[in-house]
Design goal:
six-stranded mixed sheet, five-stranded parallel sheet, alpha+beta, 31% helix
């Protein structure tokens, strides 16, 4: 099946044509056939894929669509097949890909726990189905907040839409015990919800929602207005009390690949520490000092690795590369000159370490041991071997040994060894081979490969190391919880993702991890190692949206990571409502509202710039923050356009510089207006920032 076939079919089932009709299954099958069989027969050698549904580059697809038009090289083919049906199918597929790139819609959905208890359902289940009686335009990837009415009256659950617009024939029917469905009229369509998290009921209570943008009560499904959404996103995280005031932080709710994104100063790097401890320990210490201490312990033990991407960071540092190793350094401890060798990068090292832990806890027979494969296609010989120690190389049951041998084989002692193998090993004959019916031990790699191939072999050229088989240990008494490992990548958007990740961009997908049903291992270019990513290695990235919008991020990266938005949290500045007459939270809120209006919401200013005021709530400290942090940041945002900066600060803090003392005759060039920052900031200037109108 092609890469996007299922998703594309889902899209077609809920998307009307230009005439307003939803295509039936026969029409959908024709569209899929046109993209899987029709056009691809002409373009297969050019594109290197078996279906257009394996391509997600919209520029390439648009080019093919243009070639189907008049004067295009595909025009005749397009008109001969269904009078232009291939180009229409391609048009729909391009629309589907464009929709995948859109940001999700956020929905608020009421739930009465006395009729159907969604909270209890999500406590036991990861996914449930929800009726869509009003046929709202709820799409894949949308985010749903469930508002529990009686008696809670608060948003209690955050979920993601993983399937949309299907009928009751495709229902999971896994939640029947949580409601009385006999009293309901069955909806025509449904959507599926996957639990993301339980929320902070106190902060997302009906009263707080109404104070922050909710109009009236919550009656039916509705989209969330921007001002209310901002409040929910800033306050949705539970502060440790989720169910009945009990700490319930669930590691499995943390995505294996996630990126915290938002403007500068919103606590992205700060929160990577919390999330790492949730994944590893399942809880966060009560104080920040204890949290940081525990994080440092795990980092020192190698269970957490922290790195920062930058423009010159590459594949060689991240995965592997050839590097010069000076005398006395790791890998050249006893050498007398500089050497060059393949060196593992930070990601490969951490993957190996996390795989060792996974293997030790879940795998039998291959624990801490290298595995090799010999595949002599010309002789139709395959063999597998485990290195138990430096002098024990165990060739595994089922491996083949060649009956014949090269003429020169008799001149070496290997003929004696082969005769011993034929006497001692348990073998069965099959045509020109012997096949091992039990494992057999050799004392060297060269001895094993020479006997198997019937010719002299040094071993290293014929045996290729591979990743160990991930065979589940059936002994339940030996089962222990896997130890998780974390890679934190700060400023992930500043690196060249294609250059750094290379083939890993596929291997990090949850379904492609080692041990999963669709696991993938690839041969690395420098070492030729067969490499896969274990499922106990989590990746947490941070991304500053002031550097690059999330819309401009590498598409392959966006598809493989879950993005967690982090915006300014004004509640963290509680207690700073009167810093020598200045309301700091309201001032910051006013600054950000003006930035959103003049620029965009991704260039707001984060709350963390003002947190030092918690320990020193003085105007002198606030002056320093403005002079050193806030005004330079605004100058960067607006490229030195001091007119806009003055508007952001309500026409204060910055003034026109006095005319030069030098008399300069007027010229054809327009005189520049030069601005300078005030030498003194006054209390009333800060207060005017959060006045309603600019003066």
């Amino acid at each position: 099946m092609s890469k996007y076939e299922n998703e594309f079919r889902e899209y077609l089932r809920r998307t009307p044509s230009s005439q307003g009709n939803i295509p039936d299954e026969n029409q959908i099958n024709l569209m899929i056939r046109d993209l899987n069989v029709g056009l691809i027969e002409i373009l297969k050698s050019e594109l290197g894929v078996d279906s257009l549904l394996d391509i997600d580059n919209i520029d390439i697809l648009n080019d093919i669509k243009n070639r189907c038009r008049d004067n295009g090289d595909l025009h005749d083919f397009n008109t001969r097949h269904g009078n232009g049906r291939p180009s229409r199918a391609l048009y729909q597929y391009i629309n589907f890909l464009n929709e995948k790139e859109k940001k999700p819609t956020y929905w608020l959905i009421p739930n009465n726990p006395e009729v159907y208890n969604a909270i209890q359902a999500f406590e036991s289940l990861n996914e449930i189905d929800w009726g869509n009686a009003q046929n709202n335009k709820i799409n894949l990837g949308d985010i749903v907040y469930i508002y529990s009415s009686k008696p809670i009256q608060a948003i209690t659950v955050k979920a993601e839409v993983t399937k949309a617009y299907f009928d009751q024939n495709e229902l999971l029917n896994n939640d029947q015990e949580y409601g009385n469905f006999d009293n309901f009229e069955k909806p025509k369509t449904y959507f599926r919800l996957k639990l993301l998290s339980f929320t902070n009921r106190e902060l997302l209570s009906l009263e707080n929602l109404q104070r922050n943008g909710l109009s009236g009560n919550i009656q039916g499904k509705r989209t969330i207005p921007s001002n209310l959404l901002e409040y929910i996103l800033n306050n949705e995280n539970d502060a440790g009390q989720i169910m009945n005031n009990q700490i319930k932080i669930l590691t499995q709710l943390q995505p294996i690949n996630q990126i915290l994104y938002g403007p500068p100063g919103t606590g992205k790097t700060y929160n990577t520490i919390n999330r790492a401890l949730e994944i590893i320990d399942g809880n966060i210490p009560s104080t920040r000092a204890e949290t940081k201490k525990r994080f440092d312990e795990l980092r020192d033990d190698g269970q957490i690795v922290f790195t920062t991407f930058h423009q010159s960071f590459g594949y060689e540092e991240f995965v592997e590369g050839i590097k010069a190793i000076p005398i006395g350094k790791d890998g050249n401890e006893d050498g007398d000159e500089m050497i060059y060798a393949v060196v593992d990068g930070i990601f490969k090292k951490l993957s190996k370490k996390s795989l060792e832990d996974y293997v030790q806890k879940n795998i039998i027979t291959t624990i801490n041991k290298k595995k090799f494969i010999l595949n002599a296609k010309a002789l139709n010989i395959q063999a597998e071997m485990i290195e138990d120690d430096a002098s024990t190389y165990r060739v595994l049951k089922g491996s083949k040994i060649r009956k014949g041998q090269a003429p020169s084989f008799d001149r070496y002692n290997y003929i004696v060894l082969k005769n011993n193998v034929l006497k001692q090993a348990k073998l069965k004959e099959e045509n020109e081979f012997y096949i091992l019916e039990e494992d057999y031990v050799f004392q060297s790699m060269s001895a094993a490969s020479s006997v198997i191939l019937g010719r002299q072999s040094n071993g290293y050229n014929d045996w290729k190391e591979i990743a160990p088989d991930l065979v589940t240990n059936d002994d339940s008494t030996k089962q222990t919880e896997n130890q998780n490992y974390i890679l934190i990548i700060d400023e992930i958007n500043r690196g060249n993702i294609s250059k750094i990740f290379g083939e890993l961009i596929t291997l990090i997908e949850p379904s492609k991890r080692l041990g999963e049903e669709e696991e993938i291992q690839l041969k690395l270019p420098y070492s030729n190692d067969l490499f896969g990513v274990p499922s106990n290695l989590y990746i947490i990235g941070t991304m500053n949206t002031a550097d690059r919008s999330i819309a401009q991020i590498d598409t392959a990266l966006r598809r493989r990571f879950e993005f967690v938005e982090m915006m300014p949290d004004y509640t963290t500045l509680d207690g700073l409502n009167d810093v020598e007459g200045i309301n700091v939270p309201e001032m910051l809120r006013a600054i950000n509202e003006r930035i959103c209006y003049l620029y965009d919401r991704e260039h707001q200013i984060g709350h963390s710039y003002f947190l030092p005021l918690k320990n020193e709530p003085t105007k002198v400290k606030l002056d320093g923050i403005f002079r050193v942090n806030i005004i330079p940041l605004l100058a960067e945002y607006f490229y030195g356009d001091w007119g806009d900066i003055r508007i952001i600060l309500n026409n204060d803090f910055v003034k026109e510089k006095e005319e030069s003392k030098f008399k300069i005759e007027a010229s054809r060039k327009k005189k520049n207006i030069i601005f300078e920052v005030n030498s003194e900031f006054k209390t009333e200037q800060y207060a005017r920032i959060y006045e309603t109108n600019n003066d």
